[in-house]
Each structure stands twice: as structure tokens, then as C-alpha cells.
Design goal:
Keywords: Membrane, Transmembrane, Transmembrane helix. By secondary structure, the chain is α+β, with helices and mostly antiparallel strands. The chain contains 16 helices and 19 strands. It is globular and about 75 Å long.
Length: 549
Amino acid sequence: MTLYYHDDLKMINLYFLTKIISILIIKLFNLAVEKPNVQKNYFILFLLLIITSCGSIRRHNEQKASCIPPEKLKEDVDFAYSKLKEMHPQLYWYISQKDLDHKFDSLKKTITEPLTPLQFYFKLQPVIADIREGHLSLRIPRKKFTKKEIKGLEHKKGMFSRFEYYVKDDHLFIVENKDSIENIKPGTEILTINDIPVSEYLKKYRQLVSSDGFNTTFQPYFLKDWFFYFYVAENGFTDHAKIETLYNGERKVYYLKRESKSENDLKNDKEQKKRTAEKKVNDYVAFNNSYNRNFKFLGKDSSIAYIKVKSFSRDYSEKFYKETFEKIKNAKSSYLIIDVRNNYGGSLDEINNLYSYLTSSPYVLIKPSQVTSKISPLKTSYFRKSNILQYAYKGLTYPTFFFAQTFSTYKKDGKVYYKMKADKVAKPNKDTFNGKIFVLINGGSFSASSIITSKLKNDKRVVLVGEETGGANDGTVAGFYSFQKLPNSKIDLPIGLLLVQPNITFSNTKKGVVPNVTVTETLQDVIDKNDPQMDWVLSEIEREKNLHK
């Protein structure tokens, strides 16, 4: 019996299970309509859903706190490696099979005592990170919260999230204090948290993070954003924290606390969540009160257009680019600056659409996307994160999904590929920009950001300014995922199923997209809100304008 057959049986069983559940729910609703005491029946159904949900959360948290015997953990190691070999289309891109075999075998020898899922995560994830595929990572096991607990947290301010950070080697600095908490100055280094050196945390967390290949710029950007995600997962949500700091040679101790939100804060939260037409097109993110997409003209005239994209979310992106490039064309702008710094990627469809505005010739964005087998597309976790009602709906639509995925692959030269819109010839947009383009990149430019910048650089369409990207120049493994759950620790392992590569002549450097002009920023630049990369571009544009006078 093959592993796929086992997975397929599980899918079929889930399908019939959801059919039964859907019929049961329909019966309950019909009963509620037919009987006079309708509200009572609805209440019983609602209560059933709540009880099921609460029981699930309790069981989840109990499992996360329990210790698992060594032999069971070793089974999880073998399971993880077998699934990677089965599904990952480029597993040995940056590490040899011999070296990876050795790392998994060595890991098993270190597991000699029972561990909690979290302790096991900190052992297994560094080996996964050594594969050097930035999209490939275990999901850190965390406590689940009830709706009541979540509501309680929503009524409190963050404790660490109210600062912005900068990571340099084993040092963590505060570069922005949004609410002037304790009057902590930008440039303050956090030395310890609850008497534990931050350097120890950074060394530990750095082992959990990998970029694509042998890139050197990605980790500091990712760690500044994810440091406290790891910290809270490891130490739990608390209402107080003691931090020791260093600023201008002076050490100080501060006691942070999680404050309750005022009525005005809660009112602002509700206002931020409202989706106006502008918020939709610019893809507003209420969590950090910012937009994923921004457009403006720089300077006194409209000769320089500027587009900032924080994430290729796809939401309303077609309308945004249509309106933006119409404005640029009408303004007859000569220069365009596209800023994808700190953009971790996102939708392939969005970057394919964006590219259509940046070229005057037909183009193909990516090469055909390879998968390990014709059945790989069926291994996506179709029923993942579904409640009872969603299971019922997905059960009814699963046959459509099954047949669509079954006919989504083709074989060529002994390899299997997945049909993608982005690997077909596309036409340039009628409002394509024909002026000079500068693209700003840094170590936080990852995934789709690297795909589009690699393609633009290869086609000699732009001048890239900044740092080497965090994503690889020659592609990555992502697309869509199969979420495998390790059988004993219950840790999720999402495995990318598609080898996605830009349609370029490969560099074979095993590194990120290297800029045409390297310009880096310092800690002081971030504190002072200087932008040396943007300054270089604007100076270069001014120089070119003066030459043409």
C-alpha cells in the first residue's frame, strides 16, 4: 500500500464523514423549522458546536503540555523525513542527501528522554532549517485560546508589539517607541528579558530560521519581526516583563505591563476594521494601521512615480495597478520607483499582473513548475482548519476539487509539471510604463518579491538598489502546501509542493537577487528615519535630469 493510497483513503473517509455531518445538520435545521420551539432547537445546535470547540481546545492544550516518549519522537523524525522525500520537489538543492541523512540520524541519537512538543520543536526545526528552504518550517506548537480568552486579549494593548526592533548579530535594539512607553529612547538595546540574556534567545532562534540557499541578509529582518513570536510561544502570554537595557552607556531596568485599552482605543479599533473603498484598493491592514500598497508622485512635479508594496496579497490588486498606471501614463512620468523592501512575498498572480505594466514585449514570468508526482496536487490539506459546517460544505465540493487537481499536471521529459497561468506567454498591458524603473530591495524581500525582481533584473528592465534579497535568485519551493501533522507530537509540517522558478538564465549562485547598486542602511539610519537607498535613487534621477537639460 503506497503512502498516497493511505492519504486518499483518509480523504475518501473524510468525504463520507462530512456527507453524514451535513445531512445531520440539515435534519437539525429542518427540525427547528418544523417544530414550534424553534429557538430551543437552534440553541441546542449552537451549544453543541460550542461544546465541541471548547473540548477540542482543552484536548489540544493538554496534548501540548504532555511529554512524549523518545521512541515516539523518533517516529516523528522518520515520518517528517519520509514526507519531505515524498513531496518536496527540490529537497537536496542546498544540502546533499548524505549530509541530510546524517543530520536526521544524529538528531535521533540526541533524543534520549521524554519531551513536550515545544521542546521537540526546538530540536527538530534546526534540522529542517538546514535544508535552507525559506518556506519550509515546522509550525511552532502553541497554546490555543478560547473565544473568551481571545476577547480578553483584544481588550488589552500589546506589551512587546508596541515597539519596533532592529537586529544586529546577537543584539536587539528598540528603534521606535510608538506610545512613548517609559520614555524608552530609540537606539536602546534590550540586554535581558526577565534576567535571561537576549543574546541567548537570538542564538537559539537564529537556528530556527533559514532563507533560500546561502543568503546572508534575510535572518536579521525576519528575527526583528518574529523574535517575540518565538519568545511568547516559548514563555507564554504574560502581563508583566522585566527588561534590562543599555542606552548611551547607561544601564536601566524597566517593568513593562500589558495595559487595558481605553474606550477610545476600542472605538479606534472598530474604525480601523471598517473597509472603505480606499482601504480595499490599497489593502489596508488593521493590525498595524497601514496599507499593503501605496502610490504617490514624488517631488514638485509628476515626473517620478513611487509604488510601495509591503505584501503581494492580491486583494483588489488588479484595480490598484489599473488605476495607478493610468495615473502614471496620464502624468507622463519619466521615472518609476517600486519599493518591495520588507515584502515577504505572496500572490504569483499579482506579480504576473504587475510585470505586465513593466514590459513592452510579450513575456513568460516563470518556468513550468515541477512537482514530485501526478498525485502531488491531491495532497494539499483540503479539509484543514474546518469546523463542522465547513467540513460539510467542503465534503460536498471535494469531488470538484479532486477532478480539477487530477487533471492539473502533465508529464514532459520524464518530469511532472503543474499547469500554471504564469508559465504561459502574457501580453504587456496597454498602460505599460516605458520610462526608467528603479526597484528597492533588501534582505526582507522574499518569495514572490525575489521572483519578480530576479525576472526584471534578468530582462535588464530595471536598476535594483539596496541589499541582496532574502529569497533566492533562481526560485523557490512553495506554491501550495501539504500540511502534514507529525503523528505523536502533533506538530504541523507544511511542505511546499511546487518548484517555482523565474523564467531567466539561472545564476547558480545559491544566493539571493543581488542588486545592481548596493546601498545598505545602518542602525542610526533607521532611528533617524533616513533612507539611504531612496536617497541614492533620487540623487541618480536628479543627476540624469541635469544631464538632459
